[in-house]
Design brief:
4 domains, mainly alpha
Amino acid sequence: MSVPRFAAALAALVLVGVALWRRGRLGFERLAVAVVAAIALAVYATGLPAQLPDPERVIERIATTLGPWTYVLVGLMAFLETGAFIGFVAPGEFTVILGGVIAGQGEIAIVPLIGLVWLCTVLGDTVSFFIGRHLGRAFLWRYGPRIKVTHERLEQVEQYFERHGGATVLIGRFIGIVRPIAPFIAGSSRMRYRQFLPYSVVGTGLWATTFCMVGYLFYRSFSKVTKIAGRATLGFALLVGTIALGVYGYRRLRRPEERRRLAVWAERQGRRPLLRPLAALLRVVWRRAIGPAWSFGAPRLRFLGGRLTPGNLGIEFTTALALAGVGLYVFGVYAAILARDPGALPEDSRTMGIVRGARIETVVDVLEVVTNLGSFPVVCGLVLVAAIVLAFRRRPVELTTLVLGFVATVAAVQIAKAGIARPRPTTAIIDADGGGFPSGHAAYSTAYVALAIIAARVVPGLIRRAALVLSAVVVAAAIGISRIYLQVHYWSDVAAGWGLGFGIFGACAAVALVVTHLRQPDSPPEAGAGVPATDSDSG
């Protein structure tokens, strides 16, 4: 037996002896912890952990055997990492990188893999969030004081997530020790799900894309890439910890009494003979470099931190980014697939078969009217009217966002139609010309949602704002469905059109929010765009 295993066995015996000797004074919780620790030490002493297979090697062998079924393995592991806290046992980035490697070898496609990982990680975060919402806080409130998690400390955690929950969820996605538990803590700390979801979507999208592409691009050096990725993750965690300590120090030094204490301490240290040259050098560096750099960078750092803070502009900005990312990804997936083969996809054929079997003439007559609501003349007219109203009401930001978003959507639709040149279904019920991908009607219909969100900024009452936006979403959905039912577009054409429109309008909204804040940094943001900040969370 090696020395470490012998020491573990001896420690287990000592721990068991002390626990039995003092069992009457330890209490149930401490006795249970002692028993668990003794069992862990005993298992290590037997040498059993060294004989168990490496979980990463097991996953690698399974993936190479599965081939196309790797989609299922990678998606499941991505979900379980936070949905079932598997991330404490097997790091999720390993499996995601492995999926990218398999894609690089040609067994699976990289674009659908990124989307699958993205979706599964969002679902895993959501499950973990609601587990924390329904179980975590009640458990901590009842049993937390026994493990020194008092009610006061729990309330401090809740206040922290109210201020910095978005940054924790977003940045924690790239920190291995934080990632599996951050959604659970967010839920148990009473963070609202409508605040949690945009940060989860953005963080998981960046994470999924990064690690899938790492494996895809460097699939020939898998073992080296996983080691580098692990070190990069550790380095990122250390960087975040360093920044957190810096922020903590900065906030303490904002108080005059703390600055005075630091100045007295520094002056006292500077009088020491060995430290005098260093103190003189530091004074020069502070006056010439650090001080001016801080004066320049502090306002911009505060602005960036505000974008990661739930509430008002921060949650609006992140929601717009999430909408833009998801929309443009959906469009990009279908565009990449159809650029190679513009024929009907399997889901297109199935959807078209269902539509043909469910044709009802009355429904056709109604949808012929509905589909015209998404035509270019109708939507363009509405946008022009709205632009005139916004101009008279002196709302230049909303006016610019709406007009640029619509113009960019129209241009992107025409470019995509010409570039992919996908033929329309041959069984179209109404006349239609031009390429089939993407659906222009579906893309233009997203302008209804943009108009509703702009109008919601001035409409009083949460219920009225929600009803207005929901009605616009229903109109956009009806227009897209009408194009499929009338057989002038496949499902993929409509989905890509929705994705393109929402992606462009979301990107324009995000840019507009940043520009508005930079132009008027001291003015309070107007509530209403994106997610209202005054409603209660329904979960």
